[in-house]
Amino acid sequence: MQPIRRILVAVKDPAARALPAVNKAAQIAKGLGAQLTLFHDIAAPLYAEAWAARNIDPRSWQREVLTARRERLEKLATRVRKHGIDVDVAADWDFPPYEAIVRKAQRINADLVVVENHHGTGRHPARWLLSYTDWELLRLCPLPVLLVKNRRMYHRPRVLAAIDPIHRQAKATNLDRQILRAGAQFVSALHGELHALHVFSSSLPVIAAMPDGPLIDIVDGHDEAERAARRALERAVDGFEVKRSHCHLAEGRAQDVIPRTAKRERCAIVAMGVVSRSGLKRFFIGHTAEYVMDAVNADILVVKPASFESRVPRTGRGVQVLTMPVLPG
């Protein structure tokens, strides 16, 4: 992952009372000396019949809405600038929102996208479940994405880098280092601690076909698998400031171990990588990553392989104009 010099913050509602994505992005930008762009996408569809009935000039109305949204963003930017952060604002008519965010991030050469969980950060029982917009953004964005899932500001945060140095999931060989580099940048900016987690599974024992067949020392096989996993973890973190006590090795399923470790270590951010499933041209987020992202209460930093290319068109779609359906009778 390259150094973070420009951060795009996707602001869903500039008039919202609480904007944790903006606040946390400002913390990161301040620590890294990065530039911040507050971006709001206006994706609501407009109905042609409403314009005609009210005798409204569509272009004038669009300009008025765009100006009003930019003014709200500018008020947010003014507050952030008081902390010595370089901030600009942008608003566009474009749809769907996840494509608009990717387009804007690529247009300004952003290094990081920060977005708030679209289900919000309140007390609703399903508040952690990611929305369709979140999934599509994580799937399509070639840049690292920080998904903000709670309002707690960072205070010397612990960043858990979930890596797979044995690459049993056929990950790109450099993805683990990108995850660790991303975590290290956040730790440097926020004066936190970098933790690394490797979840391994030992091979299942082979049972002899005949009752008098040779016995297999299952314990030795398990111990050897654990030693190999530990060596792989130590090699992966070599060159990064990760204390031995912050290297976590656990056997089990990643979808169970990662949320449990993040909670036990009180981690504020979980950094993880996602790759495309083998044999499929379209990019998918794997089942393990999907489960972890929904289960973890901490913020999620998603990193993609350097070879990933976004399929989002560079040209914006503009205003979505619809015609109201004609009902029978």
Q: Which secondary structure elements does this structure contain, and how are they paired or packed?
A:
Layout: E1 6-10, H1 20-32, E2 35-42, E3 46-47, H2 48-54, H3 58-81, E4 87-93, H4 97-107, E5 112-116, H5 132-140, E6 145-148, E7 158-163, H6 175-190, E8 193-200, H7 218-237, E9 247-251, H8 254-264, E10 269-273, H9 287-295, E11 299-303, E12 321-322
Parallel strand pairs: 1-2, 1-5, 2-4, 3-12, 5-6, 7-8, 7-10, 8-9, 10-11
Antiparallel strand pairs: 6-11
Helix pairs in contact: 1-6, 4-5, 8-9
Spatial separation of the terminal alpha carbons: 59 Å
Can you count the beta strands? 12
In spatial order, strands of the major sheet run 4-2-1-5-6-11-10-7-8-9
Class inferred from helices and paired strands: alpha/beta
Query: Can you identify the CATH class?
Result: Alpha Beta
Overall tally of structural domains: 1
Q: Could you tell me the CATH topology label.
A: Rossmann fold
The percentage of residues in β strands lies in 15-25%
Characterize the quaternary organization of these chains: single chain
Q: Mean pLDDT across all residues, rounded? A: 85
Low-confidence stretches: 122-128, 278-284
How large is the count of helical segments?
A: 9
The amount of helix comes to 25-40%
CATH architect. name: 3-Layer(aba) Sandwich
Order of helices and strands: EHEEHHEHEHEEHEHEHEHEE
Name the overall outline.
Answer: elongated
Provide the gyration radius in Å.
23 Å
